[in-house]
Amino acid sequence: MEQLVNFFVVGVQKGGTRALSSYLRFHPNIQMSRGIELHYFDNEQIDWAAPARDHLHDQFDWSVSGVLRGEVTPIYLYWPDALKRLHDYNPKARLIVLLRHPVHRAFSHWRMETGRGLEELTFEEAIQIGRERVRTAPNGAHRVFSYVERGFYSQQLERLFTLFPRSQVYFLRTDEFWLNPDAALAGIEGFIGLEPRKLLRCTQDLRTQTSTLSEQARILLLEQYASDIIETSRLTGLDLGDWLSDAYREPMYSTEQE
Q: Using only C-alpha atoms, what is the Rg of the chain?
């Protein structure tokens, strides 16, 4: 029987997926890919009629037995056809989805792209006139400027559930992961079929905000996301009611940065 990668962290971008990968590497029965974010299933240069698996499989030591193998690329949830390709590869794969408050996810995404020198618009411009860059992109998806679009989680989850049963998907709030990583990891380990093991706390710190999300932008986005948050809660079974509150603040940020 062909060996396959067992589980994938498929989303969301800026949702703590790198931190989760760092934690999982400590588990003796987990073998994570050598590189992070392989971008295999969203690679449009691959011939998906007869895909070569070297780029994915070369990331693992297949001589090691008794381990579960995992890979993390958060664009898979968002990118058209990525989940279909993943299902074709391993329809029994377990999927892990971290969900971050979509307004704060969008702002963090924008900050990353401005830091990379790929974005020149202000955040307010990027989430309004800047969305035209996504609408006119092939298949209506853009790797860089999709600050707002990636936050409409319910649409992406509905696509996911046409391919994978709910029993093969694990949902976790990013803020709860940061507040109680031990409990979050125990849940993930149990989901993929491993005994929970107390892991060393990883050194990655999610508290990286250095600029402030304006109240105007927050209100504008929250109004757009409100109905989607409610539907996402229904689809995932997660209680997301506090995300709709004007009082919500992300616990990942220290008080002096708020």
A: 18
